[in-house]
Design a protein that fits this description.
- The protein is mainly alpha-helical.
- The chain contains seven helices and two strands, in the order H-H-H-E-E-H-H-H-H.
- Strands 1-2 form a two-stranded antiparallel sheet.
- Helix 1 packs across helix 3 and helix 2 crosses helix 3.
- The chain is elongated and about 60 Å long.
- 21% of the residues are buried.
């Protein structure tokens, strides 16, 4: 089981936005560079995040993208759900198509507990905490500017 590239890059984009002062607008190109992704792929991710109201899009000369609300009010679960859809570890879980075996299946309760635990962990983790951790780690590694370029040259 693995998260998709879309979610991985989406979390990168959201974390980068959260590392900026509230209200800072960034272009797709800036966010693509920060997330180490193509502009086209980043644009598609941003469309989903805007649709989920996690990000706000502004048109025009002073346009760009900014967080839809403060980073301490956005959970990792919200980001994952916006990009992946509802958590669903198996077809018998809520959000899945259903399974006729769920009432007597030996694994059903395990899948349910695992899904609930994952939702709890992702729901408790805020975007603010992700940004704070990234900022602290970059400072410890003495990384300024483009973290991808700095890491590659180390």
């Amino acid at each position: 089981m693995q998260i998709t590239r879309t979610t991985d890059y989406g979390v990168r984009v959201m974390t980068h936005l959260a590392m900026q002062p509230m209200g800072t607008r960034m272009t797709v190109a800036e966010l693509a560079k920060a997330g180490d992704a193509s502009v086209a792929f980043t644009g598609k991710i941003l469309q989903r995040l805007v649709g989920a109201r996690l990000v706000v899009s502004h048109r025009g000369y002073e346009g760009g993208f900014e967080l839809g609300r403060p980073s301490d009010k956005i959970s990792l679960l919200e980001i994952v759900t916006a990009l992946e859809g509802p958590l669903c570890l198996n077809e018998c879980m809520p959000g899945g198509p259903g399974c006729g075996r769920s009432t007597w299946c030996g694994a059903h309760d395990v899948w349910r507990r695992a899904q609930e635990a994952l939702a709890a962990v992702l729901g408790a983790e805020t975007l603010e905490r992700l940004a704070s951790t990234a900022t602290r780690k970059r400072a410890q590694l003495n990384i300024a500017g483009d973290p991808v370029a700095a890491t590659a040259s180390a």
